[in-house]
Amino acid sequence: MSEDFESAEDLRAWVEQGYHEPSAAERVAARQQTLRATELERRLEDEIDEIELGVRRRRRRRRVAVIAWVVVFALIAGLLARSLVRSDPATSAVWSSGDVTQARSPVGARPEPSPESPTPLGRPPAAPLESGRYQFASFQEGSEEPVAYDPCRPIRYVVNDTDLPDGLDETVESAVRRVSAATGLQFVREGATGEATGIGRDAFQPDRYGDRWAPVLIWWSNPDATPELEGPVAGFGGSVGLEITGIAQRARSVYVSGSVVLDGPQIGEILRTDPEGEAAAEAVVLHELAHVVGLGHVDDPTQLMNPESVRGVTDFAAGDRRGLRELGMGECFPQI
Ligand SMILES: [Zn+2]
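The joint structure predicted for all components is written out below.
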């Protein structure tokens, strides 16, 4: 809080710091900054009097004025945050751009908030040494920060294995463990479900799942039941976000439910005919689960999040892992 604002970027960064609710220490620091700016202004005025060039003099005065304005603005923003932080969460649409957008906005009905752990249940591993490309499925409003799941609660999931191919009984659990390891997010398998909904699935289904967000659905389907699986599409996945407004006037979004729909017959065929068999089949599930936790596609055939499968790429690569790591470090939302 004692920057000297050497550039416009510095100023902007400092202004943005004002958007969160300040702690007592930050309010004191901001006050000190105001006093310091006043002192700087006085000293600069003295210096300016000694400078003969009128042009230079005007520039200096303008710079001082900007510093003072930033400090005042930051304090006002802090006060606004205090009065707005308790407003009720509002719901609206955020959805992922997985292979096929599957989500319907949970507008309207929603479960009672159920805070769980006050701290994240897990932590992602260190970032890989190599670089690599990744993209997020959706972003926080006006920022490059991704929408993610709340790391303070487990991601619960159910499986509909109507079209589960022979030989892949362990595939979903294995893929879930790998996504969990790469993100630090914790998953809880709730067992089997008869739910068979794909695109447009409701994130809140009290009749089926009770007063809570519907668990993530992993559905082994087929192209007759799910027309979106016709042709080369082996699966799709994504999550539904809840937008929460009222925190310092900034909307924040968090995923609350999601789904993966898998083409059972096609993935069974991959298992039987692909030289990499089981690894290639599991890679489809892994790719779709990565959409669920918030990764989008990258046009890079070395990454698992390439939109089309590539022979030999059956595990997350460095870019995928960097993205998954960030998705495991989302904010906790006790109000969902
Ligand atoms: Zn995809």
